[in-house]
Automatic annotation (TrEMBL):
PANTHER family: ACYLAMINO-ACID-RELEASING ENZYME, SERINE PEPTIDASE S9 FAMILY MEMBER. One of its GO terms (biological process) is proteolysis. Keywords: Hydrolase. The lineage of its organism: Eukaryota, Sar, Alveolata, Ciliophora, Intramacronucleata. Residues 251-365 form the Peptidase S9 prolyl oligopeptidase catalytic domain. InterPro entries: AB_hydrolase_fold, Peptidase_S9_cat. This is Peptidase S9 prolyl oligopeptidase catalytic domain-containing protein. GO terms for molecular function: serine-type endopeptidase activity.
Length: 383
């Protein structure tokens, strides 16, 4: 969503040069001095945050600008300044809130308002709710910590010569609480990361080793947790690795190990990783889900019962569920499956999808570079 600064001197907006429409992607951030006038080269806009192509290192400050439209719409200027811009973006399964300095190239400051030290940077999920004036409202949660609502009060905006000079004071406004007996169980939840060499990741969300519910312990001779693999929809989106999700909590408290997967094509891992799925539809992401599940079972064999594996997914994740349960190599991995609102009919979905051009690109199993790609040969859609 384009936004004018309060003094109407600068327009800031997100842009991309994708070859097709998709649910979520990586963006650039651009600005235009207002009223618009061209520079010496005839251009009106300036690119202030560029694309990040490579896979981000563990300690990388950001991985570019990723997200859905609903995340982009919450971006806004900080205070009365036309220089500092508040936004939310994902890096390797974690949403963070940033301040962009619009007068410097690729200047993004993560608002680490909880003062986490490096070994805990990857913990938690920061969700931008609203930025208005010098106030930023943020929800913070973890898999084992219900959401807390913070207001970040900014000081020194107008005088700051860089975003690092702006002081933010967090004020805890409210928090979600549970009955003490339930919270005790929630507190024991932990998350383990499983990663393939190609960069695909899975997050194993589970109860602590000593918290296996009696109902499962008595019914399972192994005394281990059944594992539920979840494939996200999109496919260009990503699961949050450490977000308090009541659906996740319910399953984990029943004794399941919930294994959520960010396969190749997920957002938050650089643009090259995002675009790998083009031309690899039906193979790369399916292999990632199966191989990550195998690795989780092998790495956590003392906890996970590999003979009690389930797979589930919504929308595009439902499509992957169907593929995994019918795949000649992977179909015997699963005891059960849930395909929720799955995309199964290529003919129907190519006409009704809200990302039609991507649907055609995947049906033809190659990147879309121009409309001519779709007129060079006949295409038959079978129902």
């Amino acid at each position: 969503m384009p936004r004018l600064s309060k003094d109407k001197s600068r327009l800031t907006y997100y842009a991309t040069d994708e070859r097709f429409l998709e649910h979520a992607t990586q963006y650039q951030m651009k600005t235009i001095d207002w009223p618009p006038k061209p520079d010496s080269s005839g251009k009106y806009s300036k690119n202030v945050i560029g694309f990040v192509e490579e896979y981000p290192a563990e300690d990388a400050p950001h991985a570019g600008l990723h997200g859905y439209e609903m995340h982009i719409c919450k971006s806004n200027y900080l205070g009365n300044s036309n220089r500092y811009y508040v936004l939310q973006s994902m890096i390797r399964g974690q949403y963070r809130v940033y301040i962009a300095d619009l007068e410097k190239q690729d200047s993004l400051r993560w608002l680490n308002f909880l003062d986490k030290v490096p070994e805990h940077f990857r913990e938690g999920e920061y969700q931008l709710l609203k930025a208005v004036g010098n106030f930023i409202f943020v929800s913070y949660s973890q898999n084992n910590q219900p959401p807390k609502l913070y207001c970040l009060v900014a000081e020194g905006i107008e005088e700051a010569k860089s975003s690092d000079e702006i002081k933010f004071t967090p004020v805890l406004l409210d928090e979600v609480t549970f009955d003490e007996s339930i919270q005790k169980e929630i507190n024991s939840i932990q998350t383990d990361v499983v990663r393939l060499e190609n960069g695909a990741e899975g997050y194993l969300i589970r109860l602590g080793d000593d918290r296996l519910p009696n109902s499962f312990a008595s019914g399972a001779p192994s005394g281990k947790h059944p594992i539920v693999t979840m494939a996200h929809g999109g496919p260009f989106t990503a699961f949050s690795r450490d977000l308090f999700n009541i659906n996740y909590i319910y399953q984990v408290l029943q004794g399941y190990c919930l294994f959520i997967i960010n396969y190749q094509g997920s957002t938050g891992y650089g643009r090259k990783f995002l675009h790998r799925l083009l031309g690899g539809y039906g193979t790369l992401e399916v292999d990632d889900c199966a191989n990550l599940t195998k690795k989780a079972i092998a790495d956590f064999g003392h906890i996970v019962d590999g003979d009690m594996a389930c797979v589930q997914g919504l929308s595009y994740g439902g499509n992957m569920t169907a593929q995994l349960t019918s795949h000649p190599e992977y179909k015997d991995m699963w005891k059960s499956a849930v395909a929720w609102n799955p995309i199964l009919d290529a003919h129907f979905n190519s006409l009704t999808s809200d990302i039609k051009d991507w649907a055609f690109a995947t049906i033809m199993n190659r990147p879309m570079t121009s409309f001519k790609d779709y007129t060079k040969e006949d295409m038959i859609l079978c129902q």
